[in-house]
UniProtKB/TrEMBL annotation:
GO terms for cellular component: cytoplasmic replication fork. The keyword DNA-binding applies. It comes from the Bacteria. This is DNA topoisomerase. Gene3D superfamilies: 3.40.50.140, Topoisomerase I, domain 2, Topoisomerase I, domain 3, Topoisomerase I, domain 4.
Length: 610
DNA sequence: GCAAGGTC
């Protein structure tokens, strides 16, 4: 019997289907000489400190540097504390039995670092010695799966990938467990003060933005505004110049030749500029982008959206949701026309769907090279029934985005009118010439760009128009907004470097903090620790969070760059570089940060433990 | 009691 092990049940089912294996057993599917079994993500984790004899949180244990790490079965939280997850134990027993009977083991966990680790931890925990082969595919279509099975790799080809994954795992344990205990002990052991490679830089981003906002001193400035009239259609224009002093603004304000000052047509049109602007449709959704949209439009937390997505996925209504890709391959694209066709009678999206059946589809979201383990989120085409309003809302966002992504670009006409009256004024207008993808939802535009979507009258250069009103407007500079879940998720993708451009953000996503699948839980961890709280839709630090931030803000553990540095080294390990060298550095760093944190003592004690 | 990673 050949055993195939996948990362999750859905993938095992898919593989079994391709092979025509149909006999459902407890924990695996059998047929055609194969058994297809699965994990549920990581079944094993690095054992906690107490399993190495570090009982209680004590200064003299630190730094805890296990010679050899142990694995333990994933725990689940119950009212009596943490216990071994029984479903995980059961699945491990099933996998063990299958491995014992196996004539060949085929590893079909996701094609990436963590997928490799998920299998290897199981393999070593079960003390399995049989050789294994690796299925390495980046698309789940029947053809890709068949091709992958014809082209299995020797398991040892991925030893260096496992090394890099293993290093990532142990390094996070060493730094996280030691720093957490060190800081907690330093503060008097009254509460858990956790630190980690990902959570601490995230906390630092929230704190530094909060402090920046709090200390922000708004600056007053002045601008002039006029209201013009062209054959009954009125429009507003603003002075190009800003003035720090009111008196300076007043001088030019007095020179405005408005009607009430006795000038019937005091606004001279110096220039009229019209140019079209094309807006391509948005890319399909990945996990992060839909979490952001759901937070902006519905106020759902990243965690809520993830669990809604999980249940839609389990109901077979949408494709795998924990994806970091906003693209699909050509094979998946081939199924899109059918998905769109099914929506022709949809009460809200029927018209858009109907239209799309008559035109060539936009292929901006089609790029097989940008599909990694999983493609962008799509509906499966399975009809949804009786969804709760929350599930319906998320489902509709996925359907709408699909229609938008394959739609035509939106064409706008930008008009800029320059007016002279004592000083120079500008009126900006945007008119949508062809709505394209924007017709799907008809959402008002994101107004954060300060772009006014109003239409301006047709005016001619050199003509003079009456100025009906003038005003001297007092304005003030604004601080950067506090983080909310949407802006934080976006910032985490690029380690706090906020990048507007979607494509550039994608290129940088490998240097982001955390992964799509873990970001929601990072936010929840910081809330559980009482480091941050939700206030309206914002995420703001608590006094405890700020106290921790003050202690660690200049240390490496609070810098997003630490992840970038690790990633660089891990990638070198994957291509064959020495493992021991990196481990020595991590050990040294663990010693350093432990000593530093233990020494911070009193400064944190009162502030963080109230 | 604690990390980050994956998933039901």
């Amino acid at each position: 019997m050949k055993i195939v092990i996948a990362e999750k049940p859905s993938v095992a089912r898919e593989l079994a289907k391709v092979f025509g294996a149909t006999t459902k057993k407890d924990g695996y599917i059998e047929g055609k000489g194969y058994s297809f079994t699965w994990a549920f993500g990581h079944l094993l984790q690095l054992a906690p400190p107490q399993e190495y004899g570090f009982i209680g949180w004590r200064r003299q244990h630190l730094p805890m540097l296990p010679k050899k790490f142990k694995l333990s079965v994933r725990k689940v939280k119950t009212k009596d504390g943490f216990i071994e997850d029984p479903s995980v134990r059961k699945q491990l027993d099933i996998i063990k039995k299958l491995f014992d009977e196996a004539t060949e083991i085929i590893v079909a966990t996701d094609a990436g670092r963590e997928g490799e680790l998920i299998f290897r931890y199981i393999y070593y925990y079960l003390k399995c010695k049989k050789p294994f082969k690796r299925l390495w595919i980046s698309s789940q279509t029947d053809e890709a799966i068949k091709e992958g099975f014809r082209n299995l790799k020797p398991g040892t080809d991925y030893d260096t990938l496992f090394n890099s994954a293993h290093c990532r795992s142990e390094s996070d344990w060493l730094v996280g467990m030691n720093a957490t205990q060190a800081l907690s002990i330093a503060a008097g052991n009254r509460t858990v003060l956790s630190l980690g490679r990902v959570q601490t830089p995230t906390l630092a981003m929230i704190c530094s933005r909060f402090i920046e906002t709090k200390n922000f001193v708004p600056k007053l400035f002045y601008q002039l505004s006029i209201l013009l009239d062209k054959d009954g259609q009125q429009f507003k224009a603003l002075s190009i110049a800003n003035f720090d002093k009111k008196e300076d603004a007043q001088v030019l304000f007095d020179k405005i030749q408005d009607v009430s000052a006795g000038f019937p047509t005091g606004g001279l049109i110096k220039d009229v500029e019209s140019k079209p602007r094309k807006e391509p449709p948005p890319l399909l959704h990945d996990l992060s982008s839909i979490q952001q949209e759901a937070n902006k439009k519905k106020g759902y937390t990243a965690d809520q959206t993830l669990s809604i997505l999980q249940s839609l996925y389990e109901g077979k209504l949408i494709s795998y949701p924990r994806t970091g890709s906003r693209y699909i391959g050509d094979d998946v694209f081939a199924g899109i026309p059918k998905l769109i066709d099914q929506l022709r009678n949809h009460p809200e999206f029927g018209k858009s769907a109907e239209f799309l059946t008559t035109v060539p589809l936009n292929k901006r979201s089609v790029n097989a090279k940008k599909v990694t383990d999983h493609h962008a989120i799509l509906p499966t085409g399975e009809p949804p029934y009786h969804l709760s309003s929350e599930k319906q809302a998320i489902y509709d966002m996925i359907v709408a985005r699909m229609l938008e992504a394959f739609h035509k670009e939106c064409v706008k006409e930008l008009t800029k009118i320059t007016i002279e009256s004592g000083s120079t004024f500008i009126a900006n207008g945007t008119v949508i010439r062809s709505a394209g993808w924007r017709s799907v939802l008809n959402d008002p535009e994101d107004d954060n760009k300060g772009e006014e979507s109003l239409s301006l009258p047709k005016v001619k250069k050199e003509e003079s128009l009456p100025i009906l009103e003038k005003a001297l407007v007092e304005k003030q500079t604004k601080p950067k907004p506090l983080y909310n879940e949407a802006s934080l998720l976006k910032a985490l993708e690029t380690s706090g470097k906020e990048i507007e451009d979607e494509e550039l953000r994608y290129a940088m996503k490998d240097s982001g903090l955390g992964t799509p699948a873990t970001r929601a839980s990072i936010i929840e961890t910081l809330i559980t620790r009482e480091y941050i709280k939700r206030e309206k839709r914002n995420l703001i630090p608590t006094d405890k969070g700020l106290a921790v931030y003050e202690v660690v803000k200049d240390q490496a553990i609070a810098q997003a760059e630490l992840t970038g540095q690790w990633e660089k080294r891990l990638e070198e390990i994957r291509s064959g570089a020495s493992v021991s060298e990196f481990k020595e550095e991590i050990t040294a760093y663990t010693r350093t940060i432990t000593t530093q944190l233990l020494g911070c003592g009193v400064s944190i004690a009162e502030k963080a433990t109230v």
